Amino acid sequence: IGHKDPPPGAEANIPQRYPDNRIVSSKYTFWNFIPKNLFEQFRRIANFYFLVIFLVQLIIDTPTSPVTSGLPLFFVITVTAIKQGYEDWLRHKADCSINECPVDVVQQGKVVRTQSHKLRVGDIVVVREDETFPCDLILLSSSRHDGTCYVTTASLDGESSHKTYYAVQDTMAFRTEQEVDSLHATIECEQPQPDLYKQPRILFHCCRPLGAENLLLRGATLKNTQHIYGTVAVYTGMETKMALNYQSKSQKRSAVEKSMNAFLIVYLCILISKAVINTVLKYAWQWSPDRDEPWYNHRTENERQRHMVIRAFTDFLAFMVLFNYIIPVSMYVTVEMQKFLGSYFITWDEEMFDEELGEGAQVNTSDLNEELGQVEYVFTDKTGTLTENNMEFIECCVDGNVYIPHAICNGQILSAASSIDMIDSSPGGYRRVSMCCVVSMSRKHSLPKLKEHEDLFFRALCLCHTVQVKEEETVDGIKRGIHQGRPTSFYISSSPDEVALVEGMKSGLSIKVYQKTTTLCLSCRFELLHVLNFDSVRRRMSVIVKSSSGEYLLFCKGADSSIFPRIVSGKVEQVKARVEQNAIEGLRTLCVAYRRLSESEYQEACHHLNEAKLALQDREQRLAQAYDIIERDFVLLGATAVEDRLQEKAADTIESLHKAGMKVWVLTGDKMETAAATCYASKLFRRSTQILELTKKRTEEQSLHDVLFELNRTVLRQRSISGYDRVSVGSLKVLKRNYREIFLEICRNCSAVLCCRMAPLQKAQIVKLIKASKEHPITLAIGDGANDVSMILEAHVGIGIMGKEGRQAARNSDYAIPKFKHLKKMLLVHGHYYYIRIAELVQYFFYKNVCFIFPQFLYQFFCGFSQQPLYDTAYLTLYNISFTSLPILLYSLVEQHITMETLKRDPSLYRDIAKNSLLRWPVFLYWTCLGVFDAVIFFFGAYFLFDNTTFTSNGQMFGNWTFGTLVFTVLVFTVTLKLALDTHHWTWINHFVIWGSLLFYVIFSLLWGGIIWPFLNYQRMYYVFMQMLSSGPAWLSIILLITVSLLPDVIKKVLCRTMCPTATERAQVTYCHQLHSETKALNCLVSRLGVRCLSCSDFCFAKAINQLLLSSFYEN
Questions:
Q1: Which of 430, 516, 796, 874 is the most core-located residue (most Cβ within 10 A)?
Q2: What's the distance, CA 197 to chain centroid?
Q3: Does 486 carry a binding-site annotation?
Q4: CA 792: distance to chain centroid?
Q5: Cβ 608 vs Cβ 591: under 8 Å
Q6: For residue 883, what is the DSSP state?
Q7: Residue 814 catalytic?
Q8: Buried residues in 819-828 as b, exposed as e (16+ CB within 10 A)
Q9: In this prediction, what percent of the chain has a pLDDT beyond 70?
Q10: Residues 794-840 pLDDT 10s
């Protein structure tokens, strides 16, 4: 500690090399960016394929220039590298802001300010309130007299609640920098471990073991403590627990990307088949002696002497190069740009902006946009996701007598007045209970034992908690403690339930809660001796206090399942009945009990606690054993009930998801009764729902095998049932091992499933179980807390809610939304649009490349398989980059085949795109066949129309480049107009890009063929395009071939819409009829007003004017 020399006579101390405190989350450096990025990009099959084609063009004599493959590949690699480099630059920038953060260090009795990355293991650090711990620290002393400090760990585990940490007992009395700097001690600790919940073995000065309550982790924030002195760094930099949890998310691949790869393999097989066929036919055609060496294609002496196999292989590679454009390399960069730019529509959506948080939806990854339109299973947390996680005290029960803060008695509302504060709603009337500074209870004819239990119950609620008083603070950007612009005090705690109980005592019983160091004030002074903190295993917490009369009391509160087994007396049946009733109503319940301790029992408890805290090994297990010994033989006092209200429009959202064909599962750690009540309130369950139960109690009464098969028989008898399941820990293990299929069969036939008492890892296991089923459905997980991160990362799509349990879920998710209600628009609107757009993009790219390259294949039959290209090099290079790229990119960004209002109003339209319906093999084959048909029309239409040698007005003949230019012109116009026919949502930018692309092609062709370019070693395209346009038959051929090519697709659409329309097509027709009716009404209105009638051709413009004029007309 403090890098001091060992005292004289001590053992030799060999200094060790520890890492500095630098955090590195970036992927590249200035020196390795180019080689590392290129290596990663060429690991993609498509990029590597085009690199091979480019190298083949450089090595052997190919019919096309290497520029035709090299330029598109260079463009794709450059754009991707710029994108990844920019993202990594942002990570470098974030790392620098963290590493250069100022930190106060104690050196030679003084506080010296330095930068975070300069910290070393052993430095003594000073941290002040609201500052973040720069590394993993051991708490030596605190500004609080009891040596405690309060910390929030929202950036670590997502919990924004305040946790209590304790200073080392040997150093907790230090108050100044000089005292801390004078410390001579050593710390021994284990190697760093990434597990946040596993405490490393740490020894202070070789004799005192330290626990998790002494270790402050990097990333946590100091709260409600003025400052802490003398914290010492034990783990720094990339060895801190926060850095060890910087695990990159597993790469999630969407269903569209998998379909693209499958289609790519098909087209690669087509490409190889074309090359093989042409190679075989070439040698078959040249087998005849008179065709061996045509006069225009003489071979050199080296070519004559080469082996037949080598010549055939060279020709095969040449054909591969000639036909390689059937693989759309530019499709990948277009898809990347579409996903990246399209993700901004979510962040710009004003309807998904939350005024309370001051934030809107966030996109953490744009690779899964289209997956939002394919969701089949939704796994959701309950607390904080379906509910607000804003607890409100509802009632308390003491020995069967129920007390509520406000009630109606004889038609009058009894509010929290000075003397009427809590009303007993038990049978037999009501009574007044008032508590001011002194706990006093009065009731006529009340029994002494009941009065005593009332006294103890309310004292237990006021004493058994970890609540602190806090002024204004900001947690994750949310300000608390502000009322009418002025700061006010409020309560903070490690549990929102505790805050609700204390606030209920304050408002309902007029209790003034004082914050003291070791005492709490009620009717008398109580000294707080020990706190047995809550943990998820025990599910309870306890305090040992000493009253001013010297009496020792142990107060305990916790879940009913952990309290009732330890009760020896009290009205258990009455309290249990009330707890079950509250659980059915959806309330969160806690049971309260106490135990009086004699002096000897207290000393024995202290002995057990101290012995466990000083244990050098198995410290956590020893503490759990000590708690188990102390927390027993309780007297039951009563129970409390708090309500976690349902989020706004949560029920409407779940109902819409059901109509869209999604199955909703609720995975929660709450008890079954409470969770089931929430499911009924959120319309996940109906009152007519048939319930299928799989509980631990039932599996104890019957074997799991019998229960499962009985449920399965019920399902088979009634296939369309709704139900829910509760999976306990033990049964989940058995299901994973032996009964997975039957369990999945039961759940697949249920419209909704509820799993209770789930640990975070079990939530992920349930999601993984559904993902691995034979249907391989697309899953979505949504939650707001750190306990939901595992299932969010496991699901195909993870959505985090910016809730009150911190931002860990939002940070680890693919998308983040402010409220659960925003999930409806996220899936039904944005997901629907994203999938429609990218599905059209993928199919259109393959279609236009088939149209592009198949005429080249047909042309080889007319040129002796000489590998003569049909198109000019410039056209080969720019076809996918310039002539046809922008229209489909814009289409994939702004297309709306149906309005947002219609999609939100009719969720069933989501079913039309389910199960990747637009990228199935029949649809893919239709687009491919359509491309082949159009390519045949292009080629043979031009061939037969110009079967006889055509002359222009000046007597010149059309040559092969004119023929190729004619085919290419028809090709560009046809594929562009095909996209125009598929466009439903027209804007000015659509018109500009579509017609502008065609105009750009014409202008480029005029310039390319109208100027003698000095940098070209050939001028074969000079005056070709102008010569073609000067011919009347060429114009007629272009118009005729475009019409014939587009006609089959138009006929197919008309027949499908007429004979078997989909729900989406019916909605489109209904919407058009509605717009037409509104336009006619508008024309009647404006004609009566003396205004010129509007044309109904532009429906969108007419609708906007309609709404504007009608609203103004009716107002006037």
A1: 796
A2: 24
A3: no
A4: 7
A5: no
A6: I
A7: no
A8: bbbbbbbbbb
A9: 77
A10: 899 999 888 665 566 787 788 999 999 999 999 999 999 999 999 99
For residue 315, give every residue at least 6 positions away whose Cβ sits within 8 Å of its Cβ, in sequence order, or none.
279, 282, 283, 867
Q: Annotation-wise, does 670 bind a ligand?
A: yes
Is 146 labeled as ligand-binding?
A: no
Distance CA 780, CA 975 (A): 36
Find the largest Cα–Cα distance for the chain. 126
Segment 258-270, tens digit of pLDDT: 888 889 889 889 9
For CA atoms 1015, 1018, 1022, 1025, give the dihedral sign. Answer: negative
Annotation-wise, does 757 bind a ligand?
Answer: yes
Query: Could you please report the per-residue DSSP string of 27-70?
Result: S--TTTHHHHHHHHHTTSHHHHHHHHHHHHHHHS--SS-THHHH
| Cβ pair 63, 318 in contact under 8 A | yes
Q: Give the contacts of 464 (CB within 8 A, at least 6 positions apart).
A: 541, 542, 543, 555, 556, 557, 592
Distances (CA, A) of 265 to 254, 316, 878: 17, 19, 24
State yes or no: 962 annotated in a binding site: no
* Closest CA relative to residue 790, chosen from 800, 802, 778: 800
Tell me which of 30-44, 504-518, 580-594 is least confident.
Answer: 504-518
Residue in the block written with tokens 């609080």: 144
Kindly list the distances between the CA atom of residue 977 and the CA atoms of 378, 886, 906, 1057, in Å, as whole numbers in the listed order.
40, 13, 31, 20
Q: At what angle do helices 308-323 and 45-59 cross, to 10 degrees?
A: 120
* Distance separating alpha carbons of residues 698 and 693, to the nearest angstrom: 8
pLDDT band at 305, cuts 50/70/90?
low
Given a contact cutoff of 8 angstroms between Cβ atoms, the answer to whether 556 and 592 are in contact is yes
Q: What is the dihedral of CA 619, 624, 626, 629, to 10 degrees?
A: -160
Taking the CB of residue 324, how many other CB atoms lie within 10 A of it? 24
Instruction: Name the average pLDDT for the chain.
Output: 78
Token representation of residue 338: 């579409």
For the chain, state the CA radius of gyration: 38
End-to-end CA distance of the chain: 81
Q: How far apart are CA 705 and CA 1100, in angstroms?
A: 61
What is the rounded distance in angstroms from the CA atom of residue 977 to the CA atom of residue 1098?
Answer: 19
Mapped onto helix, strand or coil, the DSSP state of residue 541 is strand
Question: One of 181, 315, 381, 814 is an active-site residue; which one?
Answer: 381
Nearby residues of 627 by Cβ (< 8 Å), 6 or more positions away: 532, 538, 542
787 is in an annotated binding site: yes
Question: Is 1078 assigned a ligand-binding role in the annotation?
Answer: no
Q: Is 186 annotated as a binding residue?
A: no
